[in-house]
Amino acid sequence: MEEEGELGEPGGLEGLGPAGEAEPVERDHEGGHRDAAEPPSRRAAEPPAPAPRAAIAFIFITIFLDLLGVGILIPVIPTIVRQFAPGGFVVGLLTLSYSAAQFLAAPALGAISDRTGRRPVLLLSLVGSAVGYVIFGAAHSLTFLFVGRILDGITGGNISTAQAYLADVSRPADRSKNFGLVGVAFSLGFIIGPALGGVLSHAWGPSAPAYAAAGLSLAAALFGWVALPESLPPERRHATAMHWRQFEPIGAMAGAFRMPVVAPLLAAWLFAQFAFASLQGNYAVYVLDRYGLGPGGSAGLFTLVGLIGVAMQGVVVRRLVHGGTERRWAITGLNWTALGFAAMAIAPSVPWQYGAVAFYSVGAAFIMPTMTGLVSHQVDARTQGAILGVLHSGASLMRVAGPAYAGWVYDHVAWPAPYWTGAGMLAVAGMVVASRTVSGER
Fold first, then answer.
1. Domain span at residue 375?
2. The whole model's pTM is what?
3. C-alpha dihedral over 402, 407, 412, 415, to 10 degrees?
4. Distance between CA 141 and CA 231 in Å, rounded?
């Protein structure tokens, strides 16, 4: 069988041989790798000089707006939906449609950016998000509400392309700590989004948050048009045409699982994302039933998670995580977070629950930047977008599966069951990472 070296095709990623076995590589002075069999004229060029601060600011803003767009609509989605359909089922389907669209789009957007460059994908996705927000805000039927959220979900798959941009412009030793900026943007988006959505909807009506998000996305696109240089020059791009399987996320994920260097890290990533999604989908119900905390009480706990995430990933992770230490800190974060899940399951009172959440948040702050960095180190510049797209697509899939599982075991097994399950999955993920030797570690 021919090995074509693409995610979603038999050979997995370019740079890997049959069945995903690594071909001989040469190490460069920064710990990267080159295909030893490839003639020098065809080898990828050395990484470019670091991007200007304005470009890094644009990447941060892009990811922040992706998450702000999710959070800013949280307060108004029930009100808008109930103009057309009663009950919570349609609200749940609308949320599901967004995650499902990201699951489908992220690998394809990443693979496209490996061929065309990161800049056009990032700019067009921001414009697409703006259009999606306008459609949602102006919708006069359920159909257009879904069209708006699905379009925004598709273009929201650009997070993997933004991460690939950071990988392009970061020295290997700095890659994971720069990925920590993604976590800061995530946390700030979730903190600011719901509060801003509530203020805007109170002042100007339920459609105002959608229009505000559209305006911010267009402003970011204009800023990027001026300030964002291309990070992936033509000589470092993937030279082959895209295969149809790269537009099919299951095939792309299966291709990644066929690669021995990536498969265990991807499995650990999916376990962790399943645990996080279970918590996010169930936690408000859990603290309401167990401690009597209403929306204000659960919002306080979620805000604590976000604030600790900002402080940890913006300062602590960037200081502690550097080249060669990603695996150690990933294992620490996974095990620490597993203990936090167990503490949430047994906390006897609200103050203890705050302590458990704080403990969990410290560990969780290490997982995204270190795991993303470890996976990024396993592939070269030509396939950063594709492999990071698989990670983001997998996370979106877990955001569908995790809450459904958590709700079922919560109702039919026990209230703490989702948290014990999450603790177990995170502990297994830690063991998987600990059992493998990966590129980029010392």
1. 53-227+245-434
2. 0.73
3. 100
4. 41
- Domain count of the fold of the chain: 1
Would 37 be classed as within a structural domain? no
CA distances from 385 to 120, 122, 293, 340, 428 (A): 13, 12, 42, 32, 27
- Residue-wise DSSP of 142-193: HHHHHHHHHHHHHHGGGHHHHHHHHHHHS-GGGHHHHHHHHHHHHHHHHHHH
Q: Hey, is 326 helix, strand or coil?
A: helix
Question: Would you write out the chain's pLDDT as a tens digit for each of its 442 residues?
Answer: 333 344 544 344 443 333 333 333 333 433 444 433 333 333 444 444 555 677 888 888 888 887 887 778 877 887 888 888 876 677 777 877 888 888 888 888 888 888 888 899 999 999 999 999 999 999 999 999 999 999 988 887 788 888 888 888 877 777 777 788 778 888 888 788 888 888 888 889 889 999 999 998 999 899 889 888 888 888 877 766 666 565 677 778 888 888 888 899 999 999 999 999 888 878 888 888 899 987 677 778 888 888 898 899 888 888 888 767 889 999 999 999 999 999 999 999 999 999 999 999 999 999 988 998 898 888 876 777 778 888 888 888 888 888 888 888 998 999 999 999 999 999 999 999 998 765 545 4
Q: What is the DSSP string of 40-108?
A: GGGSPPPPPPPPPHHHHHHHHHHHHHHHHHHHHHTTTHHHHHTTT--SSHHHHHHHHHHHHHHHHHHHH
- Give the number of other Cβ atoms within 10 Å of residue 274's Cβ: 24
Q: Which helix (H) or strand (E) holds 33?
A: strand 33-35
Residue 192: inside a domain: yes
Q: The domain that contains 295 carries what CATH number?
A: 1.20.1250.20
Residue identified by tokens 């650009």 is 158
**Which residues have CB under 8 Å from 267's CB, separation 6+?**
257, 429, 432
Question: d(Cα 362, Cα 372) in Å, to the nearest integer?
Answer: 17
Q: Residue 38: inside a domain, yes or no?
A: no
**Phi-psi category of 242—alpha, beta or left, where left has phi over 0 and alpha has psi -120 to 50?**
beta
Residue of 370, 384, 344, 180 lying closest to 272 (CA atoms):
370
